[in-house]
Design goal:
Layout lengths: L2 H16 L19 E2 L18 E7 L9 H24 L12 E3 L10 E6 L14
Length: 142
């Protein structure tokens, strides 16, 4: 095991110790984000839904309820969970835009399973171009 892997394993153990703690409510998004909502600004942390006509970085392309993380522990488990979340978001991206995530023309629109709702089995999948580029219209492909 490399030093980096050992550090990641230790950090994961510390995070697992936080799972049973109370007081995380209210630290996620304000109002729930839904398909078609836009959110986020380039210079501040803002998870509140907004009109896509207002400046935003992200657009919600899908919401998946009932996510169950694949079995696994440590770094391998974290990687498997991230890959499963990414696959769900790529599928929802294709439904939303009508084109496969990997078959879209350039410039590409990226997709990410965020914002993460702590302690939730709900995955919010958001499209973006860069994390510092704001838009004032919904995303379109083509």
């Amino acid at each position: 095991m490399t030093d980096l892997e050992a550090e990641l394993e230790e950090a994961l153990k510390e995070l697992e110790d936080l799972e049973g703690m109370d007081g995380w409510e209210g630290l996620g998004t304000g109002a729930p984000l839904n398909v078609g909502d836009c959110w986020g600004r380039a210079t501040t942390v803002d998870h509140d839904p907004r009109s896509c006509d207002e400046p935003h970085v992200f657009e919600v392309v899908g919401v998946h309820e009932g996510f169950e993380a694949p079995e696994g522990e440590g770094l391998a488990g974290m990687q498997a969970e991230q890959e499963a979340r990414d696959a769900i978001c790529e599928g929802l991206f294709a439904e939303y835009f009508g084109v496969s995530y990997n078959d879209q023309p350039t410039p590409m629109i990226l997709v990410t399973p965020e914002p993460v709702e702590m302690g939730s089995d709900r995955i919010v999948c958001s499209a973006y171009t860069t994390r510092s580029e704001e838009h004032t219209a919904p995303f379109s492909i083509g």
